[in-house]
Design a protein that fits this description.
Blueprint (H helix, E strand, L loop, with lengths): L5 E6 L5 H13 L3 E5 L10 E5 L2 H8 L6 E6 L7
Antiparallel strand pairs: 1-3, 1-4, 2-3
Length: 81
């Protein structure tokens, strides 16, 4: 089974842990897999999570961005000089 592309999903300020958990459920119900969930920490790094999102579900998932999602960006390694 091929691996799904990985993304970092960041939610807008004010989006609750329960609301984010609903998005996690939708994602996993559609074949996605959450890798890191920062929103469950006491002092989260980001209000969001990283996840492998199936390409056939990515467009639907991105359509939620106007409601609660601030950004969905490809996950990867970043270097600075």
């Amino acid at each position: 089974m091929p691996e799904h592309p990985k993304f970092i999903v960041v939610f807008k300020d004010g989006v609750t842990k329960d609301q984010i958990s609903d998005y996690v459920t939708k994602l996993t119900d559609n074949g996605g897999k959450v890798k890191d969930n920062w929103f469950t920490q006491d002092k989260p790094i980001l209000n969001g999570f990283s996840a492998a999102i199936p390409e056939n579900y990515l467009r639907s998932f991105k359509s939620f961005s106007g409601d609660s999602i601030a950004s969905i960006e490809p996950d990867g390694v970043m270097w600075i000089q």
